Automatic annotation (TrEMBL), chains A, B:
The keyword Oxidoreductase applies. InterPro entries: 6-PGluconate_DH-like_C_sf, NAD(P)-bd_dom_sf, PDH_C, PDH_N, Preph/Arog_dehydrog, Prephen_DH. Gene3D superfamilies: 6-phosphogluconate dehydrogenase C-terminal like domain, NAD(P)-binding Rossmann-like Domain. This is prephenate dehydrogenase. PROSITE patterns: PDH_ADH. The keyword Oxidoreductase applies. It comes from Sphingomonas aerolata. Pfam families: PDH_C (PF20463), PDH_N (PF02153). Its EC number is 1.3.1.12.
Length: 302, 302
């Protein structure tokens, strides 16, 4: 039996449109409704037939849903929830896909008093944005972290987990604050660093932008992929997971200073030891199916 | 007419073995000789038929060469050059593939007085090492930067350029110190940062190694590819391009501090502005053929 019969997706960008495509494939009898604040996105979603209905307002989108998933930037969650709060059916479960969970849980609980809110975070994505960037297999073999509030109904939690498993994801449960610290290191800090170095490279006077681009295959281009991610989404992530990101950043900066010192003083052994240790981490990621085994990300070379 | 008739490759790792494969395909009449200090690598090269001859010493490898390319870590260049100096034919051209050029030019000129040395750097590679990791198309559409010393014979420079064009590369000429600054930002700093963050993530107490690996698809896994690169090669790069790397690192650290401050004080506009600017850099890299257009590096999702 399917965990939900009438699913509403609010926000039809990369993640929302991927969920829509996944539901149409994996749960074809589900009645799927979509909404996006941007009329152009609604029109595209309509043209792509991402949902059975595209609603004109958040309220009309949720009116008969048994699952409502918010797929909007975390900074927009409160406003969207307020928009549909009055129309939310009492028995509906509300979830989301936001990358920071403590703050999202707080604002959703506040905007939807009495509602069943089970936040979740599928750790998957690409650097593309918008309804055309999504695809049904985005969540295959990826982890979806479910962060139920204390005292959450176990049956509701299990229905959310079931939903994500059907989209191909593996499920893990976590407390929201632990989620936020784990993601600060595995996702938020990497994005922050990538954005920073691409900015640094753009601002050099003596090395031209054209040189940076021409010789980017030396490593830099890897960072530009992540630094091409959605600006609104990422601004909101940093603003809503501030403490954990600043803490991880502090640790990173200390480690970077240690390497800086090792380079300045010619301590080759320290460099070599670290560079050997990091190789093993890559191996584990590939072995555990969290990245492809192909060299150079399988880039074409001909 | 081919630029060289008898090519010797010293060092048969990823780059050396890729050159060997490229020469066999693109310049099949060239007589190819290889040497590696590691007997196991020599045996593998023999088995893979990477060269027509695998020599037992660097000296015997170069004895009738008209091109000798050093494909060893930059810290090993001086010692290898000293090994074959006495056997180098007077008319041979010596080149290399090192990632830092000022220091390499200096040590090769010192170790090979009177020889024609035309250093070069193909900006290409993968995170793999060793003779089995190479492939003939590695240099296709990539740039090879040639850094001739002042007063170099233009005919010798052109022969080196011709050689690399036949392996698929595009040629750029640069002064060694400019090369070292360009590569410090497009290659060396990205590697340093990737090594650092993978180290930082490995050392956390409250987030386990297993969690870091499981949720690495949030961005972290991208960094682990670069941080799996050859430890000896990269140790030597940082030790031989110290000033430029430390300067770029200083700029990066300043920019990172500015972002840290923006996050701490909730300055969303500053974050949004940077994140929008960096998106354009990615677009240029793809447009100029320096990376594939596929989302998420074209990773498999099924």
């Amino acid at each position: 039996m399917l965990p939900f019969a009438r699913v509403t997706i609010l926000g039809l960008g990369l993640i929302g449109s991927s969920i829509a495509r996944g539901v149409l494939q994996a749960m074809p009898t589900v009645r799927l409704t979509g909404y996006d604040a941007d009329p152009a996105v609604r029109a595209t979603a309509d043209r792509l037939e991402l949902c059975h209905d595209i609603a004109d307002t958040a309220g009309s989108a949720v009116i008969d849903a048994d699952l409502v998933i918010l797929c909007v930037p975390v900074g927009a969650m409160a406003a969207v929830a307020a928009e549909f709060a009055a129309d939310l059916p009492a028995e509906a479960i509300v979830s989301d896909v936001g990358s920071s969970k403590t703050e999202v849980a707080r604002v959703l609980a506040e905007a939807l008093p009495g509602a069943t809110v089970i936040p979740a975070h599928p750790v998957a994505g690409t650097e593309r944005s918008g309804p055309e960037a999504g695809f049904a297999t985005l969540f295959n073999h990826r982890w979806c972290i479910v962060t139920p509030p204390e005292g959450a109904d176990p049956a509701a939690v299990e229905r959310i987990a079931d939903f994500w498993r059907r989209l191909g994801a593996q499920i893990e449960f976590m407390a929201p604050d632990h989620h936020d610290r784990v993601l600060a290191i595995t996702s938020h800090l990497p994005h922050l660093i990538a954005y920073t170095i691409v900015g640094t490279a753009s601002d050099l006077e003596e090395v031209t932008q054209s040189e940076v681009i021409k010789y980017s295959a030396g490593g830099f281009r890897d960072f530009t992929r992540i630094a091409a991610s959605d600006p609104t989404m990422w601004r909101d992530v940093f603003l809503t997971n501030r403490e954990a990101v600043l803490d991880m950043l502090q640790r990173f900066s200390e480690d970077l200073s240690a390497l800086q010192r090792a380079i300045r003083w010619g301590k080759g052994d320290e460099l070599f030891d670290l560079f050997t240790r990091t190789r093993a981490v890559r191996r584990s990621i590939v072995e555990q199916g969290q990245d492809d085994d192909a060299a150079d990300f399988g880039r074409a070379h001909d």
